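Notes on consecutive records. When two proteins share a document, each keeps its own sequence and its own token line. Never mix them. Below: protein one.
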Amino acid sequence: MKQNIETFIGCDADYEEAKVVLFGAPFDSTTSYRPGARFGSAAMRHESYGIETYSPYLDRDLIDPNDEGKYDGIAVFDSGDIELPMGSAEMALDAISRHTAEILDDGKIPLMLGGEHLVTLGAFREVAKRYPDVHIIHFDAHADLRNDYLGVQLSHACVIRRCHDIVGDGRIHQFGIRSGERAEWQFARAGHTDLHPFSLQDITGPTHGDTTGEHKGCAIEALADGTPVYFTIDLDVLDPSVFPGTGTPEAGGVTFEELRKAIHTVCSRCNIVAADINELAPTLDTSGVSTAVACKVLREFLLSMRQ
């Protein structure tokens, strides 16, 4: 018999052999609209047992079928949720930073499950210390480039702006953005970030039947040379018809298949040194569909990562 320890399905490799370490950051104290993302990581673990470890898209499996330490994908250790104080964003970010630092120091890739999007800042602070030339690939409905939200600079509406404070211009590549105040769009379009709004097409290539000749190919091709990449996915990049269980849903989003293909492109071409998936609020979709979608996104993410 084994202890009843709930992990994301297939993510039960020994810590020593694992290449990726999964952990949850259950924090949503700066959510600007509807709270509940603090429950996202635990819900994903619990509901993951409703999906298979095998991906028919990639013909890969999260588990070792012969128990010989050989994986189709990548060996993953799930370290569970970390305890975070709800009353202090800075203290929560510090706790995330410490956990991320431990994983990085052991030569492994941290993959964080939010929580609201502010949790990215805690992990990214540590990543930028170790990889000063790191770039960010950011999938989201929202620009998250406000300098402050109602006077608060540590907010999920400001997280990418705070990351820009660390790395500066030319290092942040944003896709799927379709919401933000005018000042955010002006900031991005002034060249402070590499903005690809409304879709993920510039990641995956032209759509079927596109004969315009205007598409210039994959926007991240320059990052395929081993440049360290932090990959952050806010699940509200998905259309609310696919993913209603999120704090700030925005109409006009992408489909699951568009997101899956884009994730595969990024993970298979880029040197991912850390990543996160965030903003599932499971209590806002009592059907459970949003949690099931989030689980499948995570499975495809892990199986798309290059060895």
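Protein two starts on the next line and is unrelated to protein one.
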Amino acid sequence: MSEVASGVFQVSGTDVNMVILRDGDALTLVDGGYPRDVAVAERAIRSLGRHPEDVQALLLTHAHIDHMGAVAAFHERYGTPVYTDAVEVAHARRDYLEQAAAPDFLPMIHKHGVLPWLLRVARAGATRKVAIPNVRAFPADGSIDIPGAPVPVATHGHTSGHTAFHLPRHGVVITGDALVTAHPLSKVLGPQLLPPVFDHGTGDTLAALDALTGLDADTIVPGHGPTLSAPIADAVAQVRERD
């Protein structure tokens, strides 16, 4: 775990990131890794001198299994409310599924990093069925009245209701999978989109970056890869040059 800004902590799960927002004694958890990353989230929270029960809200950038682990577990165990984009609510409830499955990777099995990654995430719970029946849509436009006061930023594309979160007080943007800085299936390091096999929304992942460009943020916490210190507009420009 690393503190990337005052009260903002990046936590590394199984090739995926979680984020803890601390406001006094209260916490918000953004994304939750794979099902077996729950213990990682719990250890991170306890290392801050807090307990999982001190998490007052849970946020999902999107409802892929590698982001739902601790979110679903904390919600079930402690009744902590879960919020996501209104479009993503049905996905989190598993009214439908926009997620790659093992057969999608078979044509890629010989490519860079695919097989080791598949084995690693399978051990982390990638094949489990996880749903959050009582997930809620964000209560209002603008910042959410929870620890950290995050502002949802619609970045529909990776999934139909994918959302990033801006932390204006800290100059931080949590980009989820709209923009990442590394991935085991990628040979490059730096701002990039995930490989297309992971995209299951109805929008355009590249066009979704338009919503990030105007944000006042120079610390980028992605869903995958290390935190990047750079203006978000510059990071988006690098992604567009790649793609």
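For the record: DSSP finds seven helices and twelve strands in the chain.
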